[in-house]
Amino acid sequence: MEQPDRRILLVDHQRMVRCGLRRLLNDTPQLCVVGEACSGEEAVQLSRSLKPDVVLMDVQIPGIGGLEATRRISRGGADTRIVVLASQLDDLFPIRLLDAGASGYLSKNCGIEEISDAICVVCRGERYISADVARQIALATLPGGGQSPFERLSQRELQVMLMVAQGQSVHDISDHLCLSSKTVSTYRYRLYEKLGVGNDVELARLAIRHGVVGIAFQA
Q1: Separation CA 161–CA 168 (nearest Å)
Q2: Domains in the chain, CATH or no CATH each
Q3: Helix (H, G, I), strand (E, B) or coil at 104
Q4: CA-CA distance, 81 to 54, in Å (whole number)?
């Protein structure tokens, strides 16, 4: 019996990237794109309503971001699998996103064949990590391999840091993460202390320098 099409939700902040991926995936046998999202909140909402088999998730998306969106989708109780498509590789995000519930992690340098393979693998309940990402993870576990100051942050601190670095206000972060403004402010100043910065601008520059956020997000 022929297998049903795998239903895919695309999540990327760039419309051109989504259009290109949609065309490539829809031209691939047994893959079908059922929706697109350009922010973390939209990704969570569409994942709940469309119930796709796989979400192809960009890390650096507006709003709550790819990390928090991955966490919320994976804890939603559905059978949806998440495969991350990252534009930048560092030793921080692969581990954090896999811990948050992602089943696969690829770089955007991969081809459509590898994306298709990853989708098939995660739909079987297994994990798929591309060779270049696996290398970064392996290097990070070696003595002296962890060079990023962001490794010292907890999952919640990292999420708040990403949103601060994107220029979001305390009020916006509070609304998105369902935290009080006082709690967000506490996290913010704790970040300053842990990362050795004095304000949001210095924090954003540090995040850009380490490839944690993209320059396109900065005002």
Answers
A1: 10
A2: 6-140 (3.40.50.2300), 149-217 (1.10.10.10)
A3: strand
A4: 5
Question: How far separated are the first and last CA of the chain, in Å rounded?
Answer: 53
Q: In what order do the strands lie in the sheet with 31-37?
A: 31-37, 6-11, 54-58, 81-86, 104-107, 128-129
Altogether, the residues listed in the chain come to a count of 219
Instruction: Give the tens place of pLDDT for each residue, 143-195.
Output: 555 567 777 888 788 888 888 887 888 998 998 888 899 999 999 999 999 88
Please report, for residues 1, 63, 94, 209, the alpha-carbon distance to residue 212 in angstroms, rounded to integers and kept in the order given.
45, 15, 12, 8
Amino acid identity for residue 195 in this structure = L
Residue with tokens 């290398």: 135
